[in-house]
Amino acid sequence: MKPFFTQAGLQKLKTYCHPQTLFAFDYDGTLTPLTSKISEARLPLKTQKLLETLYLYTPIVIVSGRSITDLKTLCSFTPTLFIGNHGLEGLKLEKKLKINFYKICKKWKKQLLNITPDIQGIELEDKKYSLSIHYRNVRAKVNTKALLLRHLSKLYPTPKIVFGKSVINILPFSKFNKGTSLKIAMHQLKMKRAIYVGDDQTDEDVFCLPTHSILKIRIGKKNNSHAHFYLKNHFKINQFLTEALSLFLR
Q1: Nearest in space to 241 (alpha carbons), one of 2, 19, 24
Q2: Where are the beta strands (DSSP E) in the chain?
Q3: Residues of the chain with pLDDT under 50
Q4: Bridge-partner residues for 194, per DSSP?
Q5: Largest CA distance in the chain
Q6: Sign of torsion over alpha carbons 183, 29, 162, 94
Q7: Beta pairing partners, 60
Q8: What span, in angstroms and rounded, lies between the C-alpha atoms of 185 and 74?
Q9: pLDDT value for 117
Q10: pLDDT digits (tens, 9 = 90+) for 4-44
């Protein structure tokens, strides 16, 4: 993984900036800074304006672990497509499958509500087709995470566990994740290439895809990431968007 703002990174961006390239972004920690309260992660105005201008030249997809309802409330920019719940929402899934996901999450929530009130500082987020337990505001994060995992191991049916930054995502087992969902979105929108920017472990489902048709960029350097390049931190996203826009405006 190399720093993006180098000759190599900018040259690679130049080869990808084309009307047939889909721009795709994670939300929390990528387009917005991470916040102590998940309900406060609103899209910064400058980022919104840059996305709106870029959208004039190419389709944009936001791929998030949040529910689409939540994204629409927080995100003041309307992209070509919202993909929520780590790929379980936003694409054309069978109704029967979605109903099954919903029923499973309802069972898990009932089980977890008997446990989570005893752990101070955590927040259980119900996203309809998946659940998330946030422990960002807990002091003893390591111990809390270990305790939560012990409780989660008792859930029935057994969930798929996806770790994020101070969050544990609980999903029904399925073939859908951010990577498979991005590929489906590319196919549905008839896009030959994509540029994806994300910051979390869940974004590795995109970064590890064995394809040269996706330019993979991570927020923050991580040695074992499969991303091609990295931006130093979230605050560089506007610089990235500005650079991409300049290539379309030439």
Answers
A1: 24
A2: 2-3, 21-25, 60-63, 81-83, 123-126, 131-134, 160-164, 167-171, 193-198, 214-219, 229-231
A3: none
A4: 22, 214
A5: 59
A6: negative
A7: 23
A8: 22
A9: 66
A10: 999 999 999 999 999 999 999 999 999 999 887 888 889 99
Question: Looking at 151, 171, 191, which one is the last position of a domain?
Answer: 171
Q: Which two tokens stand for residue 114?
A: 């008997």
**Which residues 6+ apart lie within 8 Å of 94 measured at CB?**
none
Q: What secondary structure, in 3-state letters, does 117-143 show? A: HHCCCCEEEECCCCEEEECCCCCCHHH
Could you tell me if 86 and 130 are in contact, meaning their C-beta atoms sit under 8 angstroms apart? yes
Tokens describing residue 27: 């939300």
Query: What total of structural domains would you count in the chain?
Result: 2
pLDDT at residue 91, as a whole number? 85
- Token pair 């910051």 is found at 199
Which domain does 136 fall in, by range?
95-171
CA dihedral 202→204→209→213, nearest 10 degrees, is 100
- Going from the C-alpha of 55 to that of each of 24, 60, 212, the distances in angstroms are 11, 6, 23
pTM summary value? 0.90
CA–CA separation, 197 vs 183, rounded Å?
A: 15
Q: How far apart are CA 19 and CA 120, in angstroms?
A: 49
User: Which of 171, 201, 233 is the last residue before a domain boundary?
Assistant: 171
Residues 6+ apart with CB under 8 A from 59: 22, 23, 79, 80, 81, 189, 191
Contact 184, 174 (CB under 8 A): no
CATH code of residue 145: 3.30.70.1020
Q: Is 221 exposed, middle or buried (0-12, 13-18, 19+ CB in 10 A)?
A: middle
